[in-house]
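The pair is set out directly below:
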Amino acid sequence: MNKFAPVIAIPVVIVLILVMTGFYTIPAGERGVLLTFNAVQAGAVLPGAHVKIPFVQSVRTMNVQVQKFSAQESAASKDLQDVSTTVAVNFHLDPTKVTELYKDVGTAADLERKILQPAVSNAVKAVTARFNAEDLVSNRDVVRKGIEAEVRAALDPYSAEIDAVNITDFKFSQEYSHAIELKQVAQQRALQAQYELQKVKIDSQQSVVKAQASAQATVVAAQAEAKALQLKQKAVTPELIMLDAVQKWNGILPTMMTGTGTLPMLDMTRMMQPATRRAVDRQSAK
């Protein structure tokens, strides 16, 4: 038995190796491409456990989840300024067409290197050339949509789909960035000067309005006072003056000294008109 042990063990080991290499699994989020003598077999292999012929068949796995590709591209703007643009592309492989993609292009890494990288580079250069450098930032979304349309068109013949294209950064030359900074500072100073000039104008207008209002108020007050004085002049009569004096009189006439005694200086009641005298009498009665 000891002599035949190696003879029996060797076939057993070979069978175990064949059995172990004949089984394979495809993880979730991936698809398998089955090759028979390196020839692509039709139909993608779904996730799960599968069997293949050892040494005859092999499997290439393809990630069909969303993947990110990022690239930094330099291009010239419409006004011939150097602009460096960083673009991030989210894409995924069509799960039902991974075998076609593998036959035409290769793996997902091959797709990025052969198709996606040149497509992004061409798209950035083409779209950047439509805008002046300072307009790229203000029209960021328009630029993004333009790049996305170019990339989609480039990947349309292949079994890959674009989920989103985003511009993560714009960079300009140091000289141009400094020129933009100086321009923005000048614009801010101009706006500040314009604001201060407008404020001076408003303050002047307010002062004029206040002065006009004050002058008008003075005129109105003077007119009112003149009118009141005029009415008062019309209302004052000699009788009214005499009546007012009588109302304030305490009934004692001023006197003067003579050799025989004191005499009244003036008999007020004799100088009054009859109507005034009656008013005095009534006042005295009270």
